[in-house]
Amino acid sequence: MDGVHESWTYSELVSQVARTGRRLTRDELDDRRAVGEAAAAAGQSLRSAIRDHVVATRAAWPRTETGDSADRALAMVEQVVDALAEGYERAQRLAVREEESFRREFIDDLLHGRSSLGRLAERAERFGLRLAREHAVAVAQGPQAYSEADPVARRVGEAVHGRFGERSILLTTKEGRLICIAPGDDQDVLLHFAKQAHAATDGGQVAIGRRHAGAGGVVQSYEEALSTLDLAARLGLDAPVLHSADQLVYPVLTRDRQAMADLVTSTLGPLREARGGAGPLLDTLTAYFDAGCVAAQAARTLSLSVRARTYRLERIHQLTGTNPTDPLHRYTLQTAVIGARLLDWPGNDL
User: Fold this and answer.
1) Which PANTHER family match (predicted)?
2) What is the pLDDT of residues 131-146, one digit of tens each?
3) Do 138 and 243 contact (CB within 8 A), yes or no?
4) Model-level pTM greater than 0.85?
């Protein structure tokens, strides 16, 4: 009811209805609906909006010579509406808190594999998930932590639900990350989520776990996505979207940590004897293998001259006894370099 023009319009409407007893037209009702929408957008409560209208109605209602019975009736209506709206809003706030608590408890149980499978599946149906089907989980990580109330999370949710609807898709947050759970056979949902999350988080990274069946499958896909994000951080993988299925070789390589540590120290340990330590030569090997063993591209990545790059590769050969350019030696060196990145060597003693 803010603004002179708005008050005048509604006052005139009240006066006309009081004089003629007519019903409101469709346009007049649409106008009131628009006022209600504007009030909600401005953060005004339903109770306040209704009370404003009752007060304005009472003020604009024509006085008659027969007394003020209409005014007394409207005064009573004002009190009754205020009390009813207060009780309604109180119950609504309680229901929202209970729903949020139920939803958060369910999400925690789902992503950590807690609760019985039967009970979990029953609760999942309330959110449109059929856990007997295969599901996959995408996890987005940005430069800051996000909650479900965060504008970033709301923006991503609106984009995904606006395109695919809400059925069978669960969007949430966990430990500051954005999460999307979707049917495993509908990769378009996860890819669209990844695209929107990458943009909304200003270049955040998204990992998509493999599809698995059952409630335990959701947990497995979620943990795969988390592991892939951790792996990307350790290996310096900067692709905006990573698929766990494409990174399966790394868990295999690190399954026996001690064996990998032995390979790293025995193969790359001699690089510590180089002037400046192992770091520069390890960076050279990393760039060389990342470039597909194309020496010129590796040199550009390192901002080195061809001569300097050649010297470094030769020095690596001298120290380790393995030649990076020899296909017979290359696999051992490359595996050791991957292990060094995963184990944070030479920063950590193995």
Assistant:
1) CARBOHYDRATE DIACID REGULATOR, DNA-BINDING TRANSCRIPTIONAL ACTIVATOR ADER
2) 888 999 999 999 999 9
3) no
4) no
